[in-house]
Design goal:
Rossmann fold; 8-stranded mixed sheet; 8 strands
């Protein structure tokens, strides 16, 4: 997609995929080490469904300011997402708002829903880092964080996705950093203790061959977060990025079907 607008919220770059007459607003919350323009396909599907779509590049990510991939406190990132939602609402007042969070973005979106869920009409979590995710604890126990970047092959069965990721200059290809791992550990606990999201409709998407954020650990967190209105879609053979998988059309259709049921008519 080329029809986008860029906004700057005090160093946080926000992309807007406009819609001439939207029925609702959507905020996309991206994952670790990447940026929101990797979600052009998702944004296009949502726009085609009637959404005006907005998404920030988190601090230290993509086009935003900050030391690369350093997040000292995810509560600050939640506030940035809240400012993005306020930008969307100011542009299009009175419309329902949905949030879609992937991976680390799922953690951020889950925390957002715990704090600001009354302002959401639906929540979609894709391969979310919530529940029992063991990676931060394993790495923090080491004296030195190993330089083992995310494997492009772990993202999707589509080799073009991995190739584009590996060649993307806005993607971080280095090691994880200790302050971010510490923030992950704290926020996993905060979401675990933060209560459920009540009656907020929640869609959970996950690939059953996700090796970056294994499905069983996420299930613990999703079930704790859900207030009872949980829709679960597990895709056989899919890896971490279900929106970029070989069956992406099926995944996007599930999102649209869920939103048709969740959004006010």
């Amino acid at each position: 997609m080329t029809d986008v607008r860029e906004h700057d919220l005090d160093g946080i770059a926000v992309t807007e995929w406009p819609h001439p007459e939207p029925r609702y607003l959507a905020v996309v919350v991206h994952g670790y080490g990447e940026h929101v323009r990797r979600y052009d396909g998702l944004a296009g599907a949502l726009a085609g469904h009637g959404a005006a779509v907005f998404g920030p590049d988190h601090v230290g990510h993509g086009r935003s300011a900050g030391e690369r991939v350093v997040i000292e406190d995810f509560e600050d990132v939640v506030r940035d997402v809240h400012r993005t939602a306020a930008l969307a609402r100011a542009a299009r007042p009175g419309l329902p708002l949905v949030m879609v969070g992937h991976s680390m973005g799922g953690l951020i979106a889950a925390r957002y829903a715990q704090l600001h869920g009354s302002g959401l009409s639906a929540l979609v979590l894709s391969g979310p880092v919530i529940g029992a995710w063991e990676l931060p604890g394993r790495l923090l126990a080491l004296d030195e964080i190993p330089d083992t970047p995310v494997s492009p092959a772990a993202l999707s069965r589509d080799p073009a996705v991995g190739a584009a990721y590996a060649a993307d200059p806005l993607v971080w290809h280095g090691p994880m950093k200790r302050p971010t791992l510490e923030a992950f550990a704290r926020t996993l606990q905060a979401v675990d203790r933060g209560g459920d999201v009540g009656a907020l409709p929640l869609l959970w998407l996950h690939g059953d061959d996700d090796r970056l954020v294994p499905l069983p650990g996420s299930r613990v967190g999703v079930q704790r977060l859900s207030g009872g209105r949980l829709t679960e879609r597990i895709f056989p053979g899919a890896r971490h990025e279900v929106f970029n998988e070989t069956n992406r059309a099926e995944v996007l259709a599930e999102v649209i079907r869920f939103l048709d049921q969740a959004l006010p008519r």
